[in-house]
Amino acid sequence: MTTQVSVQKALTLIQEVEERLARLRELIAPSAGVIPDAGDRVLADVLEGGAALSRAELYEIAQKHGMDRRGLGGFFRESGQQSLQVLPGTDRIVLTPYGAERAKRFLDRRAARTYEVPARALQRIAEASFAEEWDSPEDSVYDRA
Questions:
Q1: Does one domain contain both 38 and 65?
Q2: Backbone φ, ψ for residue 52 (5° rounding)
Q3: Residue 5: what pLDDT?
Q4: Which residues pair with 95 in a beta bridge?
Q5: Which member of 18, 43, 50, 118 has the greatest number of CB atoms within 10 A?
Q6: Are the beta carbons of 44 and 107 closer than 8 angstroms?
Q7: CATH of the domain at 61
Q8: Cβ(60)–Cβ(54) under 8 Å?
Q9: pLDDT value at position 34?
Q10: How far apart are alpha carbons 145 and 130 in whole angstroms?
Q11: Where are the beta strands (DSSP E) in 6-141?
Q12: 128 pLDDT higher than 60
């Protein structure tokens, strides 16, 4: 029980430190206000929101991450890799396969930096499923050896 309490305290401290670091990063951010990886953050929000959105929704997401809407043109560029594409005849914007891959990589990097309580009960679940088949005819071959 004390171990669980200690783990919870450690996770709480880590969360507080991460919040303080985020506030410090905001204070030392360049005067333009653009957050590092802002483009990847925008793409990740688009992916998490269903990979399709309106222009107004895209502008809101960009503003949330400190990007000016004029800077969004790079997502739609025809030369090189295109991250976002306007559906013809609509106001809908969708992620391209490249944009989805870029967003997924960002989300994977972000997930790798988070701290979670390990699920200790999983081994018990696995043990129960193996125990059911322990006395099966297939396994009895190994019992004779």
A1: yes
A2: -145, 140
A3: 81
A4: 84
A5: 43
A6: yes
A7: 1.10.10.10
A8: no
A9: 45
A10: 20
A11: 52-54, 84-86, 92-95
A12: no
Residue 64 shares a structural domain with residue 26: no
Tell me the pLDDT tens digit for each residue of 17-49: 999 888 887 777 554 444 568 888 899 999 888
Angle formed at CA 64 by CA 109 and CA 97, multiple of 5 degrees: 50
Contact 44, 95 (CB under 8 A): no
- What secondary structure, in 3-state letters, does 21-80 show? HHHHHHHHCCCCCCCCCHHHHHHHHHHHCCCEEEHHHHHHHHHHCCCCHHHHHHHHCCCC
Rounded to an integer, what distance in angstroms lies between the CA atom of residue 81 and that of residue 52? 18
CB atoms within 10 A of CB 86: 12
Place of tokens 């106001």: 91
Which residues, 6 or more positions from 66, have their beta carbon under 8 angstroms from its beta carbon?
A: 29, 32, 33, 34, 35, 38
- CA separation (Å) from 57 to 33, 41, 63, 73, 122? 20, 14, 10, 15, 40
Please give the residue range of the domain that contains residue 41.
34-118
